[in-house]
Backbone:
């Protein structure tokens, strides 16, 4: 499909890009562009968005670090099309946000969402009812905060057991019983 042609009806509801097959070139809807289409080149470290507005062709080159993260959006039903779930590469400017995966099958969405975040090294985002984005899990910088591990019990029954390293070694005598030799002569070597 060329850049100047309109996309067929329903094509935005079946976008499936493979995060392991980067770089990739694909087309997406753009209401402000001529022909309502923009061409996107997606690389590991950058994105190039090409479109024409009123006959003027332009290309916007953005680093992946300029994007906020990978978000899940619910797309409402549109005419004859059913509602869908979209995985988006979200930018602070909504016009630069890019669809990565659009499907009506919810079974694979979470796996794709996490794969895109891992491949592009961007945080996971979810949108609330008002359209604002936030982290799905609390975090401090790049670290996720979870429930603390239970405290280790120090006074338990297995505390006094021997370590496994000592269990592998055989002791030369039994502990607690000294070896006694009766009726033997002592040999002392003297120079």
Residues:
């Amino acid at each position: 499909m060329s850049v100047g042609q309109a996309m067929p009806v329903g094509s935005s509801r079946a976008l499936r890009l493979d995060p392991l097959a980067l770089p990739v070139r694909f087309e997406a809807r753009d209401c402000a562009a001529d022909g309502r289409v923009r061409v996107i080149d997606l690389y590991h470290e950058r994105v190039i968005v090409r479109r024409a507005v009123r006959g003027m062709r332009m290309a916007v080159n953005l680093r992946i670090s300029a994007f906020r993260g990978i978000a899940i959006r619910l797309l409402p039903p549109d005419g004859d099309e059913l509602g869908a779930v979209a995985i988006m590469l979200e930018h602070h400017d909504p016009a630069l946000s890019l669809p990565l995966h659009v499907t009506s099958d919810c079974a694979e969405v979470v796996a794709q969402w996490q794969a895109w975040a891992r491949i592009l090294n961007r945080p996971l985002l979810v949108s609330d009812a008002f359209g604002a984005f936030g982290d799905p899990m609390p975090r401090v910088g790049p670290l996720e905060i979870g429930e603390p591990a239970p405290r280790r019990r120090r006074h338990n029954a297995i505390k006094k057991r021997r370590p496994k390293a000592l269990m592998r070694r055989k002791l030369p005598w039994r502990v607690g019983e000294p070896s006694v030799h009766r009726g033997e002569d002592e040999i002392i070597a003297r120079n």
Q: What stands out?
A: The two ends are 103 Å apart (CA to CA). The first strand starts at residue 24 and ends at 29. Confidence is low (pLDDT under 50) at residues 1-12.
